Amino acid sequence: MNKSKTSRVCIPCSTYVLTFYLLMSSQKEIDNTFFFFAHTIPENIRNKFPNSTFIDLKDFWHKNKYVLALYTLVKRKKDWAFIFDADIYGLDFYWDLLRGLKMNYIEDCPNVLDIWENSNLYREYKEFETYSLLKKRLKHLLFGDYYQHPVGTSSMVTTIYTSSPYNKPYHKNKKNIVKRLSEEWEGSSKEKKQYILGVFDLNKEDLQKLASRKVILLTQAFVEDGKMSDKEQIEMYRTIIEHYGEKNIIIKKHPRDGRNYEKEFPQALHFNKNIPMQMLAVMGVSFECVVTVNSSSALSFGAEANIDWWGEQMDEELICDEGFLTLKEAKQVLLH
């Protein structure tokens, strides 16, 4: 596709957002989209999108925000000029790329707003709002509208796409469009469904593998989020797996979870393809028991699913940034 013909831009930053975007868009809209990927999207998935670029968040330019601000201003004008006229969808973490541009925010997970409100990122946002008017204007001049305004809070975000209705004061005057992923999947053509399955390398054998075990364990990226050590996370999941019996378990890793569970739990089945749990749920995959510490993905299987929420037995400080503390709280928000 000629970049000058690009009508859309997608900045997914996670496989969930990428899945959401693919489901809500027509095949023509997808074909006319240019994707900005980072390491958060696995390489085997990135390679499925020829109309894309890779942003290395660890390169020289990203080591200093002042340097990054200047670099991206030049880079956009030189190589990505199409972005100024495109409809932009996705996440808003790349403040330098989005500077001065309107966008449509897509939720990062089904309950991202509630998770965010209990995170350090939200506390930093609230602190920024207490700055003097002069200081805020200076930051805005240097870094643009999206700096310290993530999760759709920038004044440049016009529309918020979520999988369920909500009401948040920091999204006042923004349009909220609800897209039920199951409905988007059911409404997709056979060709589009095959396309999406191809993006994630999902086939019939994978679905048979998933159906062969009674219990699915959904891991989370506690190590990557600085909540515990690698050893602590392994031991935590060892305790959980022993409760159900290793031979009854299939382990579905979080896309950012870098643990090698095959070595530690050889009798369990391991499903390591980088596809959001929500995608499997809308395809009708089910289990006798869904096990998690406190991942909202467990709720993808619906209100009647048998869910064991181990976070209720754990230290609140350890898991508060990762999701809801109790299953009851999660259901009240996500299944209302």
TrEMBL record:
Domain of life according to the entry: Bacteria
Cross-referenced InterPro entries: Glyco_transf_52
Cited Gene3D superfamilies: Sialyltransferase, C-terminal GT-B Rossman nucleotide-binding domain
Source organism: Bacteroides xylanisolvens
Keyword annotations: Glycosyltransferase, Transferase
Pfam family, one: Glyco_transf_52
Protein name, as recorded: Lipooligosaccharide sialyltransferase (LST)
UniProt GO molecular function: glycosyltransferase activity
